[in-house]
Amino acid sequence: MRFRASLLAAFFALFALGVPSLHAVQPDEVLDDPALEARARALSAGLRCLVCQNQSIDDSDAPLAKDLRVLVRERLKAGDSDDEIIAFVVSRYGEFVLLKPRFTPHTWLLWLATPFVLLLAIVGILYGYIRRATTSAAPPDLTKSEQEQLDRLLDADAPKAADKP
Questions:
Q1: What gap in Å lies between CA 27 and CA 6, rounded to an integer?
Q2: Digit-coded pLDDT (tens) for 47-81
C-alpha cells in the first residue's frame, strides 16, 4: 500500500512539473514577433493586476488586466523601451501597479522596516511562549491547616496493620 501511495505521489509531482504555467494571455493578444512577445511577457509578469491585486496582469483574467496587457504590447510595437513602458504605466496607475516596489525614498520605510518588524514579532512570540512556559510551574505549597487535613484523610484511608492478613 505504501508503494502505491509513493508511486501516485511521484506521478502527480512529475505531472505538475511537466505542466506549463497557465497564463491569461489570449491568442489574439500574442505578438507575431517572438522577441517582442517575450519582452511583453516579462513586463506583464512584473505588473500587478489592479483588480486581483496579488496576481500579475499576465496571470489575471480581469478585463483591466487584459487592457494593460494590450497597452504594453501596443507600446512595444511603437518602439518604447521596457523602462519607458514601466514609467508610462506607473504614471497612469501609480507605484502600486508594480508587483515589486522600487527602492526609492518613499519606499525606504517599506524596504528597511519590514525586517525589523518581523524580528520584533518573532521576539514577541518567543517572549510570550517562554513566559507562558515559566508561569505554569508547580502549584503553591499547602498551608499548615490544609496539610493537616490531608494527612488526616490519608490516615483514615490507609489500611490498618491489624486488617492485613
A1: 38
A2: 988 888 788 888 888 888 888 989 999 998 898 89
